[in-house]
Specification:
Strand order of the largest sheet: 6-5-4-7-8
Low-confidence stretches: 1-26
Radius of gyration: 25 Å
CATH topology of the largest domain: Nucleotidyltransferase, domain 5
Helix content: 25-40%
CATH architecture of the largest domain: 2-Layer Sandwich
Largest sheet: 5 strands, mixed
Distance between the termini: 65 Å
CATH class of the largest domain: Alpha Beta
Shape: globular
Strand content: 5-15%
Number of strands: 8
Number of helices: 12
Length: 402
């Protein structure tokens, strides 16, 4: 007995929809020329006019309409392509890179972002780690050759990692007039404040097993922050001899840091003015720039809100999200919320236009020791350890995409 279904024409197959190439490979128009060798151990890792490379064929990428050329360094023999110089290099879900970065400064936690994008929270974690490392390099290169021509306000932002028994201090420095965030460092703290008897016993137990945080951590962190910002911004001869005004509250560690900074060679004349922390935090407060940065950081970051379960499980992750926030606050967000206009970087004379996330991640920023002074080099290579985890922490040894 025959059936009509055998003679029925086959249903057409649904064409597989290709993912939209977003973000695109932001490469210059025309023929691509690699600017330097991507091998960190090659002597031509920095741009050099003596560098030579050759073409080594082509390969096809599933979403690219034309074959992509492959190149080879004539010195170290490393092969690479144009995609090697993209910020999304080696990311499988590279179409989510900009969305994850924007969500990190929009008050969303890792799991909320992952649910909205339909991926695992570990995917968002890896994306934010990559974005944070890129923002560290982009921020430092943004300041290259730009003199510091305004007073500097600095203060500390307190948060914690892993649990409330492990507080930490994020030291921020912002321009008094432009509100530009020039840099940050971190300092582990000892838990303080009112505690129950059980909490005090718990703190004694943890300090006996893990050690007590350095009591001079805030002093050393502020010293490193000010040293880096001042040396970078006062390298120009036009401002090297003019005094620099530093603004802070009455924290005793800040005064000790400035005394140590004045004794270092090559430092300009430093004028330190103290504002009581009990003064109203209005526009008239000399510390308004750094107070505003603290408020925005707590408002835009779910990991720093009061009584939250989205707190930082690792201080390293908090630093990477802080780097994303710093670049967003300086170059992408308008300086004022009610009257959108120039950004803080434009007000400080560092940039001439407002950036977008595509501009921030247009090219892959390769790390170099000169571009990341002090602790920022360890921030990039994820060397900040969480004391509560002890030796149970992974060591990142990626070679190409890290």
């Amino acid at each position: 007995m025959s059936s009509d279904r055998h003679n029925a024409p086959a249903a057409p197959r649904t064409a597989r929809r290709r993912r939209s190439p977003t973000p695109p490979l932001r490469l210059p128009p025309g023929r691509f020329r690699p600017p330097h060798c991507p091998n960190r151990h090659c002597r031509f890792y920095r741009p050099d006019p003596e560098w030579r490379w050759i073409r080594r064929g082509y390969y096809r990428y599933r979403i690219h309409p034309r074959p992509l050329p492959r190149f080879q360094c004539c010195h170290c023999r490393r092969t690479f392509t144009a995609r090697t110089f993209a910020s999304t290099y080696w990311l499988h879900r590279w179409d989510l890179f900009l969305k994850a970065s924007d969500a990190s400064v929009s008050g969303s936690g890792l799991r909320q972002t992952a649910r909205s994008l339909g991926v695992a929270h570990s995917t968002i974690q890896r994306h934010l780690g990559r974005a944070g490392r890129q923002c560290l390099v982009r921020h430092r290169r943004m300041l290259d050759g730009k003199p510091l021509r305004e007073p500097l306000a600095f203060d500390g932002f307190e948060s914690f990692e892993y649990s409330q028994f492990h507080p930490c201090h994020y030291n921020l420095a912002a321009g008094h007039k432009s509100w530009f965030i020039y840099g940050f460092t971190d300092s582990p703290l000892r838990r303080k404040g009112r505690m129950t008897a059980e909490q005090k016993d718990r703190r004694i137990e943890l300090e006996a097993r893990l050690g007590r945080p350095d009591p001079k951590a805030v002093e050393d962190g502020i010293l490193e922050l000010l040293r880096t910002v001042v040396r970078t911004g006062r390298a120009d001869d036009s401002v090297a001899d003019t005094p620099l005004l530093l603004l802070s509250d009455e924290h005793p560690a800040y005064q000790r840091s400035i005394r140590r900074l004045r004794r270092e060679s090559g430092m300009p004349a430093l004028i330190h003015r103290v504002t009581p922390s009990t003064d109203p935090r209005t526009r008239a407060n000399p510390l308004f720039a750094v107070n505003l940065a603290d408020s925005l950081l707590r408002h835009c970051g779910a990991n720093h809100r009061r009584e939250t379960i989205a707190f930082n499980k690792r201080r390293q992750g908090g630093l990477e999200r802080l780097a994303i926030f710093t670049l967003w606050r300086n170059a992408i967000k308008s300086r004022r919320e009610r009257k959108p206009g120039p950004t803080a970087a434009m007000e400080a004379g560092i940039l001439d236009r407002r950036w977008s996330w595509k501009d921030a991640f247009a090219w892959r920023s390769f790390p170099r020791k000169k571009d990341l002074p002090g602790s920022w080099w360890s921030y990039y290579w994820r060397e900040v350890r969480t004391r509560a985890l002890g030796e149970n922490q992974t060591v990142h040894r990626l070679k190409y995409a890290f």
